[in-house]
Write a structure and sequence with these properties.
Largest sheet: 7 strands, mixed
Helix content: 40-55%
Order of helices and strands: EHEHEHEHHEEEEHHEHEEEEHEHE
Structural class: alpha/beta
Oligomer: single chain
Shape: elongated
């Protein structure tokens, strides 16, 4: 990776020109170069960086040349680069299609409208090597009288990884700081990822779990239109997570399938705003205010 600035963007343009000459490809328009630079940032996972995996840039240029030639164009334009990106994804996303199809017939339950107590939509990322994609998952929490404290269903059923267990212990610390400074917290809280049978790891959903837990304790319903990602520390501060673009796009896909109502969106850590390099359909929906992004720094803000 390298810092993205005018110098590195100019170097990208020069690289594109050199590849076009060496491979006997069509020349790239300024708009095409702009799209290639955006692709470089997406691969790097940050708007502030560009990837140095030049093999991927070369392959993208060669495929964009094919689509430009098929259209009879004399130049590789932005639309041709976009088509090359979309077709590459299409060749590798069979598993993504099968996973997302489970939401069509309610084999996997998800709500993208209305309000429910103790229920929040979390976001996970599946990395398939060639591509990564986001998948929403429902987190539920139930609270009742008792003294066992916080019950992590995944851990009790041996489906929880070490990092996820750490996130749950951090949530216990937050609850103690907020509610048990003067009196013991005599309550039982059961929290789980619904319809998850392959194991859970990572702490990127710890803030989501905490919102579900607070909703259950207070009996205040949570809007199902908003999916949440972000880890939390014992002070209630929201921390950055990985795969933010794929998580947003995964929830957008589900909302688009079920019907965008203008209130749906994703809440992310403020520290992840610099990582946003979203696909065009999501960007268009954001511009038209059919979909929304929210950035938060603390649990209280969320």
């Amino acid at each position: 990776e390298i810092q993205r600035n005018k110098v590195s963007e100019h170097a990208y343009a020069r690289f594109a020109a050199r590849i076009s000459h060496e491979e006997d490809l069509l020349h790239v328009t300024p708009g095409g170069v702009e799209q290639i630079v955006e692709y470089g940032s997406r691969v790097a996972g940050s708007r502030r960086m560009l990837t140095l995996q030049f093999g991927r840039i070369r392959a993208l240029l060669k495929e964009a040349d094919f689509w430009a030639g098929r259209e009879g164009s004399t130049r590789i334009r932005k639309a041709h680069v976009r088509t090359a990106m979309e077709q590459y994804r299409r060749r590798h996303n069979l598993y993504e299609d099968k996973v997302l199809a489970q939401f069509d017939d309610d084999s996997v339950l998800i709500s993208v409208q209305g309000s429910v107590v103790g229920q929040v939509n979390a976001l996970a990322v599946y990395d398939m090597g060639e591509i990564a994609f986001g998948r929403p998952t429902r987190i539920t929490a139930e609270s009742y009288m008792g003294t066992p404290g916080l019950i992590n269903v995944e851990r009790e059923s041996e489906l929880s990884g070490q990092t996820h267990d750490k996130g749950m212990l951090i949530i216990s610390g937050y609850l103690g700081r907020m509610f048990a400074r003067e009196y013991p917290l005599s309550v039982s809280i059961s929290i789980t990822f619904e319809q998850s049978y392959d194991g859970v790891d990572g702490d990127s959903a710890s803030s989501t779990e905490l919102y579900a837990l607070l909703s259950s304790l207070s009996q205040i319903p949570i809007h199902q239109e908003i999916a949440v990602t972000g880890s939390v520390n014992q002070k209630g501060e929201i921390q950055a997570i990985g795969g933010v673009n794929e998580k947003i796009e995964g929830f957008f896909e589900i909302c688009a399938k079920k019907g965008l109502n203008g209130r749906q969106g994703v809440m992310i850590p403020a520290a992840n705003v610099q990582n946003l390099v979203l696909r065009d359909p999501v960007m268009e929906a954001l511009k038209r205010e059919k979909f929304h992004l929210y950035s938060v720094k603390t649990i209280e803000e969320g």
